[in-house]
Amino acid sequence: MKKLSLIISLIFVLLLFGCGSSTNEIEQEQQEETMEVNDSSEEVSKEESSTENSVTEGKGDLTLQILKVDEEAGVSIDDHELYQALQAEIAADPKMGDENDFSLLPYNVVQYEDGSKGLVFLAINRLNEPIRNLTFELTFGHQDGEYIFEDYVVDLPEDYMGVLEADGAVPFFLDISDEDEALFERLTPENVYIEMSNFGIDFAE
Q: Which residue ranges are recorded for the region named Disordered (predicted)?
């Protein structure tokens, strides 16, 4: 019985040693895998951080410009309510606009002195060169197919807009009806539809 007990004890010790060895190996492997995962996560994090930094560094802060026709009329940002509001909008998000592209920000509705209304768009130039004499077709409205503008030809000649510098933004106005204004008030970032096509553009020297 003692011999049997001794053999059983030896087997039990060997089993404990074997399990302990296996457990240590598993723990070591898990630690190595954890280190590899952590290293991989750090690499991904560094890559994402580098990408974010390069995107951020790729776009300068926007500069608000005055329409040439307004500038010739003596308008300045400091003494004009709309330009002041647009300046505050840009200050809140100076990196807005698609990199290496031209984009639009539908801003707000304004009422003219004669009672008619217009929709203000902010034209944003993120191209690497100044642009002028800009034309394109605009479709803008609700993604369900109800539009304020559909294939509407927008013409922004130099004698109206001036030269839009790189990293520059300038407002322009399109006439709308009361029904158009009601639709604009219903638009949200989730349901808005905007498309530009058939561009004509001159690059200023």
A: 30-57
pLDDT tens digit string along 159-176?
999 999 999 999 999 999
- The range of the structural domain enclosing residue 106 comes to 63-203
Same domain, 154 and 186: yes
Q: 120: buried, middle or exposed (CB in 10 Å: 19+, 13-18, 0-12)?
A: middle
How deeply is 140 buried, as exposed, middle or buried, from its count of CB atoms within 10 A (0-12, 13-18, 19+)?
Answer: buried
Q: Nearest CA to 95 among 151, 152, 56?
A: 56
Dist CA 67 CA 86 (whole Å): 13
Q: Do residue 50 and residue 91 come from a single domain?
A: no
Q: What pLDDT, on the 0 to 100 scale, is given for residue 39? A: 52
Cβ atoms of residues 95 and 56 within 8 Å: yes
Encoded tokens for 181: 């204004």
What pTM did the predictor assign?
Answer: 0.71
Two tokens, residue 82: 């709309």
Q: How far apart, in whole angstroms, are the C-alpha atoms of residue 202 and residue 132?
A: 5
Mean pLDDT of 107-120: 95
Tell me which of 41, 58, 75 is where a domain ends.
58
- 198 and 136 together in one domain: yes
Count the alpha carbons within 13 Å of 183 in the hemisphere toward its beta carbon: 20
Give residue 30's pLDDT: 52
